[in-house]
Amino acid sequence: MAEEKKGFFQRLKEGLSKTHQGMVGRIDVLISGQKKIDDLLLEELEEILITSDIGVKTTRELLEKVAEKVKRKELEDAGQLKKALQEEIFLILREQEKPLDPSLAKPFVIMVIGVNGTGKTTTISKMAQKFKGQGKSVLLVAGDTFRAAAIEQLEIWGRRVGCEVIKHQSGSDPSAVVFDALKAGKARGSDILIMDTAGRLHTKVNLMEELKKVKRVMARELPDSPHEILLVLDATTGQNAISQAKMFDKELGVSGIALTKLDGTAKGGILIGISEELKIPIRYIGIGEKAEDLREFSARDFVDALF
Ligand SMILES: Nc1nc2c(ncn2[C@@H]2O[C@H](COP(=O)(O)OP(=O)(O)OP(=O)(O)O)[C@@H](O)[C@H]2O)c(=O)[nH]1
Ligand SMILES: [Mg+2]
């Protein structure tokens, strides 16, 4: 068990290694050999944090807290600075550590949204695999009716994971698919229903209208659903991810975030920016292509692996 735990953490570390090098590595260079914390050091630290995609606002807030500690003489030297920063980042992230609890409803309905290619479909299949592993029954809903290949992709995952997929033909109305899926979910007594959706650009009004209609149909057919509107964001898109989130939240209301592809970027600081600026629970982070690379978000694990 200890071995397994170590392997699990090690893989998280590897997944975050680019950001470790790009952010923490540069902080290490900055403070090495430097004893005093002065304005120049703080300025350079600011530059590192901003270029790690933590965002200007969140970086300022972090630095203010650190500077206060320096003023109160709680931080004596540059070495302690890193530790203090790590703790402040942990405090920001901890606020958004709120795992999904699908036992709150039955079926627990999750609507997964996000722009093209952020990782919606693969995240859904990884989630399905997790839930199945916990002994829950999962129904997948092929709500991305925009492309035939999208329906096929979900079906392949469904077969692999062992979940039934509710689908219509491509080009059909996703709210009709969800209507059928809810009926099926109720009839079969499914524990969890996860719906894939199309990711055509969020600036396209008709996609938003389509998704709103899906949401309305859900609420009508199963009061209180969807229980989760999970927005999938791609960490490699940087600050764009934040504007996408604001847009989707304004239009549909987002109750949770999955941030994928943290393994593919040196700017994983975006997770900190997202947590502080959006104040939306982070449900999952993605650190690779394998099923176990979708992690339930833990602020402690993330910060420890990063630093
Ligand atoms: N490296 C890495 N790749 C990921 C991660 N999550 C998803 N991907 C990859 O990202 C690509 C796009 O994933 P999809 O799940 O098809 O994305 P989507 O949002 O459904 O895309 P559309 O259906 O086109 O809107 C795939 O090649 C995935 O394997 C991750 O955490 N790390
Ligand atoms: Mg997809």
Please sum up the structure shown.
With 307 residues, the chain is of the alpha/beta class. 54% of the residues lie in helices and 13% in strands.
Keywords:
single chain; 307 residues; alpha/beta; eight-stranded mixed beta sheet; 8 strands; 54% helix; 13% strand; binds guanosine-5'-triphosphate; binds magnesium ion
- Following the backbone from N to C, one meets helices and strands in this order, namely HHHHHEHEHEHEHEHEHEEH
- Per DSSP, the total helix count is 12
- Biggest β-sheet strands, sense, barrel: 8 strands, mixed
What best-fitting shape do the alpha-carbon axes yield?
Answer: elongated
Low-confidence stretches are none
Taking all Cα atoms into account, the compactness measure Rg is: 21 Å
Tally the beta strands: 8
With strands numbered from the N-terminus, the spatial order across the biggest sheet is 3-2-4-1-5-6-7-8
Give the class from helix and strand content and strand pairing. Answer: alpha/beta
Give an overview in words:
There is one protein chain. The chain is of the alpha/beta class and 307 residues long. The protein is built from twelve helices and eight strands. The chain has an eight-stranded mixed beta sheet with strand order 3-2-4-1-5-6-7-8, sandwiched between helices. α1 (2-15) crosses α12 (299-306) and α8 (174-188) runs parallel beside α9 (205-221). The radius of gyration is 21 Å and the shape is elongated. The chain starts with a helix and ends with a helix. The protein binds guanosine-5'-triphosphate and magnesium ion.
